[in-house]
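Lab notebook, bench 4. Still working through the backlog of constructs that have no structural model yet. Next entry is a single chain of 337 residues. Request: give me the structure tokens for it.
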Amino acid sequence: MAFVTTCRKPKVLSFGPISYADGGDGYMKDFEKQWDIDILKPTTRTNTLASLKTKVSVSGPYDALMIHDLDLIIDDEMLAPLLPNLKVVVSASAGYNEFDVDFMTANGIWFCNARSAVSEATADMAVFLILAVVRDTTRGEKQVRDGRWRGDITPTLDPNGLTLGIIGMGGIGKHIAKKISVFDMQVCYYNRNRLSPEDEHWYGATYCSSMEELLSISDVISINCPLNASTRGLIGKAEFAHMREGSFLVNTARGAIVDDEALIEAVKSGKIARAGLDVFVDEPKVNPYFIECDRFTLQPHLGGMTMGTFKKAERECCENLKSWFGTGKPLMSINNI
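Model written out:
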């Protein structure tokens, strides 16, 4: 049911300020007519837990929790101080492996991620990494910075005519397919559900009935599926064995989808010529081999880190809260209460 009270407006606790949603057009002023907002600036896990308990006792209860881009696990311990009043958690990120959705569901709490906001910016990062690994730009830049001009760099492949295999044809995968067509790359995809014939035509993408089929015909592999129990370690030694010799790998999804040691072995053997990574297993830590080896192009999880994305993500969070307040149900949620 919708939020009903005659005593107060619903209240959201935001882990960090809502800095981008307003956009200069008064969006937040309208939002604050419906909602009271408190801010808690997270630091370490221990300190954040202590601050959260104090915040709830002094200023609570809170009906909603808003999470921005942060390196905290939102589990039962983090959510417990907000119970039993907490009814909805909204995240400004697309990935949600850091959130204990099962605990939320068991306690009647809706969970919503930012499904649409980060898609295009993350796709832009994937396209950048695809071009970087195909054209060997990381080594080229290093040669220039070291004063060696081209050094021992040899001619690279052209992207046009290569086949891009997309694993996970959600919003990000679709954006990649559309953008990469500018470079005349062929696109195939593997997804839990096949797209409609109309969508396949629109995105210029050919369906592969198995991941092994996709791996065997692709020159470049782009990882774009969510991280969950079934995709953790999805790309390991057996999967690399199916890939073409000298192929390329790009991961803008989650680091744990690819087995680090298997990837390193594939690069050392030449199975993978180069790899572009925006995500890592134990962020912000990065496997030392990735840093030392010049066949990796690395980014510090910048895929969705644009001002436009932050604005859209925060507004998506707010719209889910407004919908829950008005109807008892957010616009889009991961779980169902």
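Notes after review: The chain has 13 helices and twelve strands. The chain has a mean pLDDT of 95. Flag for follow-up if needed.
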